Amino acid sequence: MRWILASVSLLLLFAGSNAILKEMGITIKKIDYENSRQAQDLVNLLNAYTEDPMGGGEALSDDVKTNLCQRLAKVPSAFTLIAYDESETPAGLVNCFEGFSTFAGRPLVNIHDMYVADAFRGRGISQALLAAAEDEARARGCCKMTLECLSKNEVALKAYKKSGYGNYELDPTHGVAMMFEKKLK
Q1: What are phi and psi of 125, to 5 degrees?
Q2: DSSP E strands: which ranges in the chain?
Q3: Cα 5 to the chain's mean position, in Å?
Q4: Each residue's pLDDT tens digit in the chain (185 positions)?
Q5: CATH of 2-174 among 3.30.565.10, 3.40.47.10, 3.40.50.720, 3.40.630.30
Q6: Contacts of 61 (CB under 8 A, 6+ apart)
Q7: How far is 95 from 42, CA to CA, in rounded Å?
Q8: In terms of Cα–Cα distance, which of 98, 152, 149 is closest to 126?
């Protein structure tokens, strides 16, 4: 029931951009991690992303391929949107997680993964996925979207800037925020 209500809500949110997507032959679906076909589509797209040089250049581990969607289903703040073409071929994805902005006192959505398959690039699918993620964030009452991007991924940076994303800064005299990582063993 929760999945049906979420799907109906998302379809209503996309209504404004649906005409454009329909012309493109693209449908964006908020996937159900427990739906085996959609789960496999997510894993296949994510694996293609991780095999790309901008995704690290290595395939997902067998453990991740087998268990990712089952684990994501246990994360209430997670949602994934997949763009499909008219023949139901998965064209791209955006994996998102709800967080919280303590400065604004409201939730936010972080785009953790964004990928468009090679055969579908240059068609505006990244813009459609970003708009759909923003619609979902608004429906959740979020104050902003965040994402990380490699500094040399010029194609992605251009797409993000086109959608209105920019560097995070509180005061330009103090510089822009940087992302750091520490892998835990």
Answers
A1: -70, -35
A2: 27-30, 78-84, 90-101, 106-116, 145-147
A3: 20
A4: 333 333 333 444 444 455 566 677 899 999 999 999 999 999 999 999 999 999 999 999 999 999 999 999 999 999 999 999 999 999 999 999 999 999 999 999 999 999 999 999 999 999 999 999 999 999 999 999 999 999 999 999 899 999 999 988 888 999 888 888 889 99
A5: 3.40.630.30
A6: none
A7: 9
A8: 149
Ramachandran region, residue 151 (left: φ > 0; alpha: ψ -120 to 50; beta: rest): alpha
Q: Indicate the burial class of 153 (C-beta count within 10 angstroms; 0-12, 13-18, 19 or more).
A: middle
**CA dihedral sign of residues 85, 130, 44, 50:** positive
pTM for the whole structure: 0.86
Q: What is the residue extent of each domain of the chain?
A: 2-174
Of the candidates 76, 68, 6, the one whose C-alpha atom is nearest the C-alpha of residue 41 is 68
